[in-house]
């Protein structure tokens, strides 16, 4: 099984399962998606699909601006955050990149392609404090994922503001990935969005499909000072009409946030309770996101392969640079958690 998360259909093919069988029986704990999903209405006029989509989906952009308490000029919709990451690095081609690690692999891959010098700043997963880079050149890029992956730690706003000011003092760019922040809340007190107007070199990446449980839709948002977005590279292709319509439906569902908050509070505690007595687990890291990181007593990859044969996909974290085996698990439903806990208890080791 692949070590990368979210490879649902590839895993089904390796197992020899049909798509229908996989959708009914395969549980994907490797992809940290909201299992609730909005009530999508797929009864769409086919004539809409006959025409090329606009460069920017204006109704969706306006809805998102209201949700984020921003101006539309501070938002650029994009075909997923991965594409935006590579466009960002290709646009700036920084001589120096500093990545708070562990983090998404896309940032390291983009830096390898477009930045000659990349430095990893290893985060202490047991601390809320960040070590600020001492050697920081003008126009360097500093990247922090908050809440962080794979551990789900959210860094306090005081730390983020201090890091932002540190970067500004060195005329460096600060890129904050807030993809999982909506699971904590959309309030500006959790985000640096309210600083965009004051810091032209602040860039925020905001995924939408994780929170709304629709990874089959490729859509996200770049949040930045209007001057930067005016100069941002033009996307190869605009947001697909169908993607825009479905995400608009999601944003219009007023009770979805309350449902998600209630689910996550109860479901995450249920998952932790189910795993507390598991003999394979050495440590469960505290997390404010919709996933948890586990340190294991046993190698992660053989465990992942065993669980896959039971129809359970997990994220082995061997490529995050840990000295001991770790796995990441998405929060699901109590029934899914029980099935996972039973499989872990039956693991022959």
Layout of helices and strands, plus pairs?
Layout: H1 8-15, H2 19-25, E1 27-28, H3 58-68, E2 75-78, H4 81-92, E3 96-101, H5 105-114, E4 117-122, E5 141-145, H6 157-169, E6 173-177, E7 202-207, E8 220-224, H7 226-231, H8 241-251, H9 256-275, E9 281-284, E10 291-296, H10 300-309, E11 312-313, E12 315-316, E13 326-330, H11 334-345
Parallel strand pairs: 1-11, 3-4, 3-5, 5-6, 6-7
Antiparallel strand pairs: 2-8, 7-8, 9-10, 10-13, 12-13
Report on this structure.
The chain has 349 residues and is of the alpha/beta class. It folds into two domains: 8-30 and 256-346, Aspartate Aminotransferase, domain 1 (Alpha-Beta Complex); 53-252, Aspartate Aminotransferase, domain 2 (3-Layer(aba) Sandwich), CATH 3.40.640.10. The protein is 34% helix and 17% strand. It has eleven helices and 13 strands. It has helices at 8-15, 19-25, 58-68, 81-92, 105-114, 157-169, 226-231, 241-251, 256-275, 300-309, 334-345; strands spanning 27-28, 75-78, 96-101, 117-122, 141-145, 173-177, 202-207, 220-224, 281-284, 291-296, 312-313, 315-316, 326-330. Strands 2-8-7-6-5-3-4 form a seven-stranded mixed β-sheet, sandwiched between helices. A four-stranded antiparallel β-sheet has the order 9-10-13-12. A two-stranded parallel sheet has the order 1-11. α3 runs parallel beside α8, α4 runs parallel beside α5 (105-114) and α9 runs parallel beside α11. It is globular and about 55 Å long. The chain starts with 7 loop residues before the first helix and ends with a helix. The model has no long low-confidence stretch (mean pLDDT 94).
